Amino acid sequence: MALPIFAILAATSAAVSAYGQVQAGKAQKVALKEQAKQEELAAESQELARRQELNRALAANVAALSTAGISAEGTPASLALESAKQAGLSEMTIDLSERLRRASLERQARSATQIAGLTAASTLLSGGLKAAQLVPEEE
Fold it and tell me: Does pTM top 0.85 for this prediction?
């Protein structure tokens, strides 16, 4: 009589453990998605700050050129254009890097739920096997 009780306890323990693993996976998914959102907001804020700094630098260059009596044509204009192109390339590189980081976090979030589901299934199978082993064979 005691053996079926142990089998029931083993099966219940496996079910509770599996449920906990699934919930942990869901919580990890939520946390990683939230981290991805925070990364996106931080990236937008940093991009705005970089653009403001670039605009200040370009405005300072124009002001310095005009104060020095140099027209914004020819070499100064081409230097300013090249500077703006380099800043744009830098912005694109930073933006790509940040998008890749967010995509990685989102992949980790999806993976967390899949791994939790597989681990829970494994726990249920293992618990079922233990429970089956505890039940006496009928002759």
Answer: no
Whether 102 and 39 have beta carbons less than 8 Å apart is answered as yes
Between these two residues, 81 and 127, which has the higher pLDDT value? 127
Measuring CA to CA, how many Å separate 25 from each of 12, 87, 109, 135? 20, 41, 8, 32
- Comparing CA positions, the residue from 16, 24, 3, 9 lying closest to residue 123 is 16
Q: Which residue reads 């912005």 in tokens?
A: 91
Contact status, residue 113 vs residue 29, Cβ threshold 8 Å: yes
Judge contact between 136 and 63, C-beta under 8 A.
no
Q: Which of 82, 85, 109, 124 is nearest to 25 (CA)?
A: 109
Task: Quickly list DSSP for 51-93.
Answer: HHHHHHHHHHHHHHHHHTT--SSSHHHHHHHHHHHHHHHHHHH
Q: Which of 60, 58, 62, 81 is nearest to 70 (CA)?
A: 62
Rounded to the nearest 10 degrees, the angle between the axes of helix 75-134 and helix 2-67 is 180
